[in-house]
Amino acid sequence: MTKSTLSTVSIDLGERSYPIHIGSNLFGTASSYASLPKASHAVVVTNTTVSPLYADALMSALGAHYPAVELVVLPDGESNKNWQTLNDIFDALLGKGCDRKTILFALGGGVIGDMTGFAAASYMRGVPFVQVPTTLLSQVDSSVGGKTGINHPLGKNMIGAFYQPLLVVCDIDTLITLPARELSAGLAEVIKYGPIADLGFLDWIEANLQALLDRNPEALAYAVQRSCEIKSWVVGQDEREAGLRAILNFGHTFGHAIEAGLGYGEWLHGEAVGCGMVMAAHLSQRLGLVDAGFVSRLTGLIARAGLPIKGPSLDASDNAGRYLDLMRLDKKSEAGEIRFVVIDETGHAFMRGAPDAVVREVVDLCCI
Ligand code: NAD
Ligand code: GLY
Question: Which atom in ligand 2 lies closest to the alpha carbon of residue 248?
């Protein structure tokens, strides 16, 4: 089969710039990796679910460029995004005699991408890595921009590094095997880009949602392309989240509280973000930034994407208090004050604090 790159989006970060190739027949085609530096070892890091689906094809493509292609298979799931599993990667790299020119290939969703990127950032003080994302969420968000890391029991993605890949290969064909629930989770991050940066894209998502749910390849490729373009625009201005990049966390402050409060893996990250966006939209309304019509438009789209729009109860006696406690641990908090990403109706997002009483109202309104 011939490789078919439909589009390439660039991340412009000076000497750390790299391309994101989006298309069909990409990940298992040797020429997709022709621009990478030479190395004695290429190591594919993946998990028990993705390995039987796609590892052979990737390893065979890499065999055209590297004398030794190794495989590291990790346990699947957000609950394994931790020190123990990260250490399994280091054990494997050291056990296989991997040197500091070894290139790691993250084959899988955001959990594999985040952990492999962090392993690459720290193994022998830094080895190169490539993202080969196989979930919608990882193609539109996590594989791009260089945030890597693991969870801590007290907070999501609390340990990590900014470390950019050399290349991102988004092969739309891999989305065929993705469970429907995971596709919906990815749509949450696609929808996110509309209210924070591009209302025209929000219109497009509304008009094409069914095509996306039906996995129409052209619709998926455009959603990945436009999402990556917006993320590239943000990351190119603020790689290390001094300010602007925080807008990519719309819905995540509430969402991370859901994930940590329920235990990682109970709700999918995208599900928590989808519901978190509903909460953040209501907060924006209470702060006078959007009207009820916009909140209900966004909520309707999130529901149509197959995502939850009501949050779980995290504490029977004081649910809102539990959300507040968890959100105070968010990385955006400053001196104990929670900083929320809020939206207006013009396709812009920004950071705001909010009185606890208002946050309590929102949590009470939006939880089961
Ligand atoms: P995931 O990595 O857990 O993948 C979801 C599930 O789909 C897993 O069971 C996986 O094995 C399976 N899978 C992957 N590809 C498949 C395929 N093609 N066919 C069948 N099954 C497949 O979850 P995710 O939603 O991809 O990523 C979520 C993670 O990404 C979270 O840990 C989140 O914190 C992180 N994240 C990071 C960033 C960032 O900027 N680094 C941004 C957003 C999210
Ligand atoms: N997903 C948020 C970020 O990359 O900043």
Answer: 2
Cite the residue boundaries of each domain of the chain with CATH code 3.40.50.1970.
Answer: 7-176
What are the tens digits of pLDDT across the range 235-270? 999 999 999 999 999 999 999 999 999 998 899 999
DSSP 114-125: HHHHHHHHHGGG
**Does the pLDDT at position 272 exceed 90?**
yes
pLDDT score recorded for residue 2: 64
pLDDT tens column, 150-168 = 999 888 899 999 999 999 9
Long-range contacts of 337-341 (CB under 8 A, 24+ apart): 338/253, 339/246, 339/253, 340/253, 340/280, 340/283, 341/196, 341/246, 341/247, 341/249, 341/250, 341/251, 341/252, 341/253, 341/280
CB atoms within 10 A of CB 56: 13
CATH 1.10.10.10 fits 180-366, yes or no: no
- CA 51 / ligand 1 centre spacing (Å): 14
Nearest CA to ligand 1 atom 1: 109
- Does this model's pTM top 0.85? My answer is yes
Residues of the chain with CATH 1.20.1090.10: 180-366
Cβ neighbours of residue 153 under 8 Å, at least 6 residues apart?
Answer: none
Mutate to test the pocket of ligand 2, among 13, 142, 228 (most ligand atoms within 8 A of CB): 142
Question: Which amino acid residue places its CA nearest to atom 2 of ligand 2?
Answer: 248
Ligand 2 atom closest to Cα of residue 141: 1
Please check whether the domain covering 7-176 is classified as CATH 3.10.20.30: no
CB atoms within 10 A of CB 68: 15
Query: Could you tell me if the CB of 114 is within 6 A of ligand 2?
Result: no
